[in-house]
Amino acid sequence: MFKKYDVIVVGAGHAGCEAAAAAANLGSSVLLITMNMGTIAQMSCNPAMGGVAKGQIVREIDALGGYSGIITDKTTIQFRMLNRSKGPAMWSPRSQNDRMRFAEEWRLMLEKTPNVDFWQDTVTSLLLKDDQVCGVKTSLGIEISSKAVVLTNGTFLNGIIHIGEKRFGGGRTGEKAATGITEQLVELGFEAGRMKTGTPPRVDGRSLDYTKMEEQWGDEDRGRFSYTDVELPKDQRCCWITYTNSAVHEALKEGFEKSPMFTGRIKGLGPRYCPSIEDKINRFAERERHQIFVEPEGWNTCEIYVNGFSTSLPEDVQYRALTQIPGFENAKMFRPGYAIEYDFFPPTQLSLTLETKKLKNLFLAGQINGTTGYEEAACQGFIAGINAHQKINDKHELILKRAESYIGVLIDDLVTKGTEEPYRMFTSRAEHRLLLRQDNADIRLSPIGHELGLINDERLEKVKQKVENADTIVHYLKTTSISPDKVNYLLADLDTSALTQNAKMFQLITRPQVTFADLRKADKTFDEILNSYDKETIEQAEIKVKYESYFEKELEIVDKMKRMEDREINPEFNYVNLVSLSKEAREKLMKIKPKTLGQASRISGVSPSDISVLMVHMAK
Questions:
Q1: Which string of DSSP letters, residue by residue, matches 80-103?
Q2: 606 versus 343: which is more confidently predicted?
């Protein structure tokens, strides 16, 4: 019934979809196995993509040739660029999406992708031969052979859903949990743990009073995630903001004695930066209110996502508290919020390709590695899918460095440092974030995507043209002078010092008060030049000019670090015999088996003196 596939992907969430698409687009025959064909790419929690650092990840996936940015743009109902008041390293695109259309577009995109087959079933175990994965076995008793397997099980492995004192098995509300894989891997010597996440109740938007809330509209001059020319929806939908109050908090406290979090029934750690509402009012008791974002779930549905009200309290407590929120007095609840516990495998058991160290040709991606968020899952799936294809075809592996992508930072953090709580990406995790901006993801990564075969010649040429055009603008500014009489009136309005003699326009634009828009008023030729370029090219040029000196300093640091990053360590190196290392360093290095000296330096418990010992030994 089944042929032998090159790659089997288990799970069709964000990680699984990107893994299947990446491997198939590289030429592998792929079987995507999901428990429910109707929930492919389901947005289990918030119907939104991007946000701080997460938006950069989506742009990076797109720049490399993945699908997440395209799907997001097609199904956006509101777009906002966050942190515009800060420097460009902090700018982060975020969109609210149509939940149903997002899943539909993903499925249609995969169905149009040659080499992708589908099968609805539950994988219960892996097929093994000589410490190597060679396929899967399903709940129907079917054995399907493959050269590699990518596990992207999300929250389904031994998942337990909690609502107050009620608990039942499930990987998502209305869907059963998956069993068998954890038990098999633990028996094979893998370490497993438990994590927890949660989701808020959904309500009927027709029952809300929006006059008591603050409107929140998207950007008028809206942006996009994908570097392709995918057509954007013409309109945007409004979101709203409201707040909790003391009455809401008191209503929630009535259910604390039945909270699975506070009674100890939930053992797994939840996401630190996305706590439940009961956790927030317990930990931040001094705060009189907490922000609630009221977000539509699509163009044509009345269902509302209550962002900021994640909870696992009893449903009657949830409802009483909800109706104390301004605008929610007559709210009708579609379904209660809940918490879910699930198995994960500490990611220190993986190599930087996301292949497991114990079993060859087995790759893990997404929440199974201890991460949280669609974007974090999608980029892991994308990299795992690529490396699964590369491995079985004896091609070079793809390992993105920390200095070239947020994806590289995320995977290096997971594999090198591990995580004991759901890992979420932030700009602060990237030491070179000034270089890893959302505006230049295509410049950084599209050449890599092209070399792999995921980006065509036309797209790469477009990136090269963007660079050339930005350089042309910068060259004009560096070589063109402007006289005081042309610009001093503008400088006075901008509250910055006047010119006393002719100055290069480049010098003016480096002033924080002066923008390209200002200089366009003063110099007609400059205005005409910019009229011939698109918004992204102009933005690239302005950032390049304003931050040129900072970029140069950052690149110097990267070059210094590169010497350590490029010093590879033999994977068979026995650290136990190197007695000059501290005992903790020997244990950690044997466990992680770092690929490079740079990676070794980031392992918790490995000191600078340990690195010096390694360097001396390697020099010998």
A1: EEETTTS-TTT-EEEEEE-HHHHH
A2: 343
